[in-house]
Records
---
Amino acid sequence: MGVKIYTNVMLDLETMGNGPDAAIVAIGAIAFDLEAGELGPGYYNRVDLESAVQDGGVIDASTVTWWLQQGDEARQEIARAGGLPIAVALASFAEWMGQTTIEAEVWGNGASFDNVILRSAYQRGGQPAPWAWWNDRCYRTVKAQRRHVPFERIGTHHNALSDATSQALHLIKMLRPSAFISGEPR
Ligand SMILES: [Mg+2]
């Protein structure tokens, strides 16, 4: 039996900034089949903030202040030790993309956020980004055009994998309502 290969990925970063060079503290993603309304494998790794900053990642005071106001579970997750050096995290995400997807459309929450920040990190680190720029897709744009479709949260708010999963389900619900079952992946 072959392993299923996906052509859509929802990406969610947790960062310490909101510009294109924001320092990344977690990378979450989930592969999905938009036509079938199915979720596939997920990816999650935390990134060592110091390594992200050494690699040119930028910390913004406004984002740090915002983090201080978020829930305990999400804050503790990004504050605890043991994140991967950014170069290792980027290589590991690229490996996951290579194993899980082909010519994937990569969805981020905002035309200037997740995809741009992650691609910038690959550029600064001298590693090839594991998806093509013409496959950048914006979940936030779809959401703005389908305001009547309710969003259902799975897991912990601001955990990158939980956020990516919730957003992928919402996107399926918006674009393929007939394929959507509810809540958990089929
Ligand atoms: Mg998030």
---
Amino acid sequence: MKDLRELLAWQEAHGQVAHIQREVDPEYELASVAAAVQKQYGKTVLFEKVKGSEFPVMSYVLNNRAAVAAALNMAPERMTHQWSAREEQQCPYTIVEEGPVQEVVDLEPDLTKLPLCLHSDGNNGRYITGGVLLAKHPVYGDLNASFNRCQLAGPRKLRVRMMPPQHLGQFQQAAEELDKPLDVAIVIGASPAVMYSGASKIPVDRDELEFAGALGQEPVEVVRCKTVDVLVPAHAEFVIEGRVLPHVREEEGPFGEFTDSYVPVMKNHVFEVTAVTHRKNPIWHDIFAGGQEDLMLLGLPIESEIFNHIKKFINPDHILDVVAAPFVFGCFIRIKKTREDEPKNLLLSALGAYSWTQFVVVVDEDVDVYNPNDVLWAIQTRCCPEKGVMVIPHVTSYTREDVKEENVGKFGIDATAPLEKSHIYTRRTNRWNGTYDLKDYYTE
Ligand SMILES: Cc1cc2nc3c(=O)[nH]c(=O)nc-3n(C[C@H](O)[C@H](O)[C@H](O)COP(=O)(O)O)c2cc1C
């Protein structure tokens, strides 16, 4: 799907969009209601009237695997395999002279009129959370895409968080060494492929718009920004153009992030806005940190990265699921085990595949890895702690500056049953299960 509009239309056709007609306040109310609607109905939430802004807001758009699979034209049950294959490819973008994202060009923008949201008590003001930041390396010219939260600091000023060793920070450092600002475009409402490229950690010298083309199996159409030297997707909703200033840092935060706690105030970068462009009737995109949409954006690229590593140790067709669930730092791997040494090798390579991955559990094919309780059941019944738990000391997982001393060490759990005793570990069945409609027996 070349843009979020196509995904929204697909979701509309499947009854997957909740329209909220009542006006909501972008401060606290929108985030609270969006989370509640998503939890109860599992739908994309579209707020049609948002106080203080003329633009509607969508949230929880990419909130389940089916939506992502549809958007990227993948089979839900083969997503990790297909993702991994597409990761090997690049697909050059096409430069076009004009695109919907520049239907309106505002060279004297006022960001306070955009529906930036305030999500949690204690957050220092309103933030852009759904923006993919695009920038060109000041020396090598490679194009990078990444999500970075941006705090509203004035009508034309933002503060941007770049957590080391993120690539945007490396680009900014290279520009700073030349005493130059870094041109950056913040893209809101990009296509699912561009968003997932932005959320992926691919090598710094690979162009991430070309990777987006590979992920979506279609070249991304891009236009040149009006005031900075950056190419942006022509079919996005909004673009905020500007520059990250060299040698300037200001206090940003606190911000309630995906770990469900607050990142404290830190000295972060300053972004000076030079223009805002958008469609004629644009929709703002807000992502709630730690919500389903955010966890999927963070998790799916990690799953693919782990798959790429573990497939060296086992027949890839025997890897049935790799799930960075439920909260990104963990990973559940479901396999068809054929040798006793497989799980330990998988644990070791999976733990080394991605820095953030703190623990991995390997289970047999009869375990539902999308249900954490079932994984706990497997640990309880099939893991022999003396032989099945592996601790890797001294390795940092989550590199956030203020907590990295606590995030040291990783562990793996082999929760697979011994092959020679598989008859003892076979799960119970009942031939009647799944053959009837419960309503024929009981209704409330
Ligand atoms: C919604 C969302 C918000 C994010 N916010 C930040 C952020 O504020 N700072 C940061 O360093 N990384 C943030 N990340 C993670 C990076 O975007 C991600 O690690 C990305 O792969 C880094 O890109 P890189 O490979 O170009 O370094 C966020 C990710 C998502 C999905």
